């Protein structure tokens, strides 16, 4: 299965090539790092093997910080429009976490299967049914 995506200004485009949609696990994260980085209530990312992801156009800017969590996190984003493309921590291993909203068909592919950091979830956010 191939999935394409891009940043908001489309300077950066990418392709994800998975043997099966089950090779991705999308989740909703309510932690404060995700709130700050996305500027919204949560971050939705699809965890995939890093080797399945290829940048087709553009080169992302990288930001590295532990942001107080104690674990080094790298975020790759478009330096022109600011869209977050992916993030991966020191403990991500062979995986990376792609920001789900950058997929070209986010309403229909790789839906979330769970949530993280529920204690930071805003009381007005509905719960995601988990699998
Ligand atoms: Zn952009
Ligand atoms: Zn988070």
UniProtKB/TrEMBL annotation:
Domain CENP-V/GFA per the UniProt entry, residue ranges: 3-118
PROSITE patterns named among the record's database cross-references: CENP_V_GFA (PS51891)
Record-linked Pfam families: GFA
GO molecular function, one term: metal ion binding
InterPro entries linked to this entry: CENP-V/GFA, Mss4-like_sf
Keyword vocabulary terms for this entry: Lyase, Metal-binding, Zinc
Top-rank taxon: Eukaryota
Family per record: Belongs to the Gfa family.
Protein name: CENP-V/GFA domain-containing protein
Species assigned in the record: Hericium alpestre
